[in-house]
Amino acid sequence: MIESLRTTYATGVTRSYSWRKQQLEAxxxxxxxxxxxxxxxxxxDLGKSTAEGWLTEIGFLRSDIKxxxxxxxxxxxxxxxxxxxxxxxxxxxxxxxxxGVVLIMGAWNYPIQLLLSPLVAAIAAGNCAVLKPSELAxxxxxxxxxxxxxxxxxxxxxxxTGGAETAQQLLAERFDxxxxxxxxxxxxxxxxxxxxxxxxxTLELGGKSPAVVLNDADLPTTARRIAWGKWINAGQxxxxxxxxxxxxxxxxxxxxxxxxxxxxxxxxxADQASDYxxxxxxxxxxRLVGYLSDGTVAHGGxxxxxxxxxxxxxxxxxxxxxAVMQEEIxxxxxxxxxxxxxxxxxxxxxxxxxxxxxxxxxxxRSTLQQLTENTHAGNQCNNDTLMFMLNPELPFGGVxxxxxxxxxxxxxxxxxxxxxxxxxxxxxxxxxxRYPPYTSFKQKL
Length: 445
Ligand code: NAD
Fold this sequence. Notes:
The protein is an alpha/beta fold and 445 residues long.
């Protein structure tokens, strides 16, 4: 099957602007025609509400496609660069060309967006693609595997469903690029397999993304924005604030404001709230319940196995070396830790793996600048959470253990393209001094 994609690629069909445009429009049509079924699948897999599903998956993807279609012609154009005098006359360009046949492996938490947004970039760049959705979001994976061949060119785009075994079979093949979204453990497997074929990889991984709340932050707004970013998709978001470092003088007040925000969003009983999701499976549910004893439950702490429900929970008095502070939480539990000042917060962050996202909350611009300049993170957003995802002019990706490479908008197009260095020279000017023999006169030149 993968060989047949190579044959398709070799015909050159995927290189044309018209093919790319037509495929992107067809993908948009797939989403529009099947919106209801897609939202239902998200609900089946993660208890995702319609509003959340629309905001973070359907709407996100449609605006990604729209942005790509709007700029595609320009992105595809060779970009002229200057020509040095020594190489005059002539012209130099960066010529974007597709990579060939690429593999895209998605994660389960945003099972539509994380599979199809890389696909938008891969199509835009003129590639054939193999898609491997995550088996943990089974309803969505099955639906996409059924729909995609009906809308997209089946000779150029194929979907393989299945678990780790299928993924490993695919990884044994030679691809021209692999984009993997998921945890670091499998990220290492992907990178090792790719090394066998010297295939370049983009790894969109995770980690513990901190939120730093300083003394002069607007607490009610800060709390609402942290609560929104944390408890959307029941905390199963790679860029969710994993934990909060708060100025010790504001610790109790912030916890109170967070409680208010939870109440405002989900009412007194979050299990009854239509906008509150469920944990993807029993194994993750159990892992998360285990974290509840790693601190004092300041809010929430209730759970229900049958429904894979865990209440939005705030943990205080959490030890920095406890499991909940060592592993990525990836669920609805928020540890809040006091720090004495910005320097202590920076030190705490710098001693740990470089996170995927970092959130700073302060009314003082120079304080936020200090945080930016003294920490590492894939992405940073000041005085809010998650919102940076809405700007296609910003790249998305991690750094160090939170990932390598980036995408969204033009950055995705670039990830799935090779920017060939191209110089073209005319015949009419061919002075002999560049050729041997190199006489002493020529050497002086
Ligand atoms: P997952 O379990 O869905 O796995 C991702 C992919 O890896 C799937 O296609 C799966 O089939 C495959 N896989 C699983 N085991 C494998 C194996 N042994 N060999 C080969 N392939 C295998 O995803 P996950 O790891 O549970 O996802 C959660 C993690 O992903 C979190 O760490 C989260 O932060 C991260 N994440 C990152 C982003 C991002 O954009 N950076 C987005 C979402 C999730």
